[in-house]
Amino acid sequence: MAMPSQSLPRDFLSRMRQLLGDEYEAFVESLHAPAARGLRVNSLKISPTAFFHRSPYPLQPLSWLQEGYLIADVGAQPGRHPYHAAGLYYLQDPSAMLAAHLLDPQPGELVLDVSAAPGGKATHLAARMRGKGLLVANELIRHRTRTLIENLERFGVKNVLVTSQHVNALAQAWPERFHRVLVDAPCSGEGMFRKSELARVQWSNSMVDGNAARQRHLLASAAQTVAPGGRLLYATCTFAPEENEAVVAHFLRTHPNFELIRPPSLPGLDPGRPDWIPGSLARGLHLERCIRVWPHRSPGDGHFFALMQRQGPPVQQRSLAPPSSTLKPSTRALLADFWTTQLTKPYPQEGWIQYGEYLHWLPVSPAWWGPIRPVRAGLRVGRMTRGHFLPHHALALTLHADQAQHAVRFSPDSREVRAYLRGETGRIQGPDGWVLVCVEEFALGWGKRVQGILKNHYPRSLRQR
């Protein structure tokens, strides 16, 4: 629904009129329009081209991102489609997709997302890493890590640590550790105005100033984790120069070992505006290399990015290896029995560890993270209960139908797949035991067949109503 300009904060409108001049009317008109709906394909599970040809919705490709699309059908409900439950895509503001594209993590690198929840940018980083290296997805607010973990699991990400730490703790534990660091800074959220009434109500000039002070501290602390030669991306979803160019300028003044990188030339991107902050602060810093994404010039709600590099010879990538297994022999035997009788993929001999009743596969040794205690480490594979091994939902979402000894494939528009996602039991012939339930060849979760009845093991928290 269109939003009346009267519902926008008056001080915000006054400032934007002063900054944008002749473009002000087009900018305000864009805030009246419905928000663009973006869909980013999970390239860990399917190629963008293959998904485009089987998409249940008409899609418009984004010219600058191979895996990015706009959903052309305004009535579509992509969040309820079985492909979404299978982790084939993430629904994301198109301008937010630029973050991982700009940071450009490479397979095998160490990558840190400082403020990762709910997981849009983190899942994109993970997909670009192709399952190699290590992603640390940090979220300070502990209860928000639940959604973050769900999204990482849905995408089939295994090479990840989820943490909930203040950035100062990360800097102290992991100085100069990471090849790529993303600081998606909490901000005044002006880019969210057309779809969030709460963002409009909460906004104030004092909020902008307070955020800028916190952002300066956050960026300076996060920079300590960047290895020589590594890259640091600062991002916000606001238009305020106090939170954007000014924060970057303060950082560069106090961190001469970092420099702004000239961004790629992509359609719909505008340069930073050093003329919107005091000349004494901006002078000589090349702030025009920052990126502004405006809702009246490109699809999306609006973002700001500053890509910087730490000077010094690049740190050589050290190969990461899973640790030696620490499971008890009886537990290891049960896990190996499940793996060899239910799956077709090779059984990993190393990397296994048990936390409480849960079994995990770790991409790195616990010695790597030192004093930091993760909320989730690696892939949660299953749990031990009463002398039995029960596979976890996260394991299912890393699998393809051909990687299970027993899999059932439903079409995306079938009654059976909808019933499964609602948590209902069903009838299916075959031998008793675990079954990987799939939409086409893509895993949705587990079921257990008992005398022709498929008992539903889809997580209760994810079931559709």
Give the biggest beta sheet: 10 strands, mixed
Q: Roughly what fraction of the amino acids lie in strands?
A: 15-25%
| End-to-end Cα distance | 25 Å
CATH topology of the domain at 5-33 and 92-310: Rossmann fold
Helix content: 25-40%
Q: Rg to the nearest angstrom?
A: 23 Å
Number of extended strands: 23
Instruction: Return the structural class.
Output: alpha+beta
CATH architecture of the domain at 5-33 and 92-310: 3-Layer(aba) Sandwich
Low-confidence segments, given as residue ranges, are none
Query: Tally the helices: what do you get?
Result: 16
CATH superfamily of the domain at 5-33 and 92-310: Vaccinia Virus protein VP39
The backbone outline, from C-alpha atoms, is globular
- Mean pLDDT across every amino acid position: 95
Textual characterization of the structure:
It is a single chain. With 465 residues, the protein is of the alpha+beta class. It is 28% helix and 23% strand. The protein has helices spanning 10-20, 24-32, 48-54, 82-85, 98-103, 120-129, 145-154, 167-173, 197-202, 205-223, 245-254, 279-282, 329-342, 366-369, 393-396, 415-421; strands at residues 38-41, 59-61, 68-71, 89-91, 110-113, 134-138, 160-163, 178-184, 226-236, 258-260, 270-271, 291-293, 303-310, 352-355, 358-361, 376-377, 379-385, 388-391, 407-410, 426-427, 433-439, 442-450, 453-456. The two termini are 25 Å apart. The model has no long low-confidence stretch (mean pLDDT 95).
